[in-house]
Design goal:
single chain; 136 residues; alpha+beta; Jelly Rolls; 5-stranded antiparallel beta sheet
Length: 136
């Protein structure tokens, strides 16, 4: 099975799509699910989905670690013509996964109790992201 999942974002943050994956895998067999995001300024994460403060803290941490290019500490960046969030988004995507592998058993994601699947948007403006979904 292979398909493309479209995820609309409206700015920086973590967008959970675990339920979309569960629906897509309904009736599937056992295998290995591979997810791959087709962009260079966002990432994929498996992260806690019980307390929204976890997502807020992750976003705050990465913003502090890699601030916009308008921040004086980032004055060395040269790729700035697409906006102050663009090159920092590429840096964050280079630091985090752009693909994930998740075991599937009898059509069920073998995630832990508090684990969810997220697209981590690093850009400030809205985007429609594509995630390739492949079950083998």
């Amino acid at each position: 099975m292979q398909s493309i999942l479209h995820i609309a974002t409206d700015g920086p943050g973590l967008y959970e799509f675990t339920s979309d994956m569960r629906a897509l895998l309904s009736g599937a067999q056992t295998g290995l699910l591979t997810l791959f995001v087709r962009h260079t300024s966002c990432s994929l994460l498996i992260q806690e989905n019980a307390d929204p403060e976890v997502q807020d803290d992750l976003q705050a941490f990465f913003h502090r670690l890699v601030p916009p290019s308008s921040d004086p500490s980032m004055s060395y960046l040269r790729h700035t013509y697409e906006g102050p969030d663009d090159m920092p988004a590429h840096i964050k995507a280079a630091m985090m996964p752009v693909s994930l592998q998740i075991p599937v058993a009898q059509g069920r994601l073998m995630l832990g109790t508090w684990q969810g699947i997220y697209l981590f948007e690093h850009r400030s403006r809205p985007h429609e992201r594509q995630v390739v979904v492949h079950l083998s």
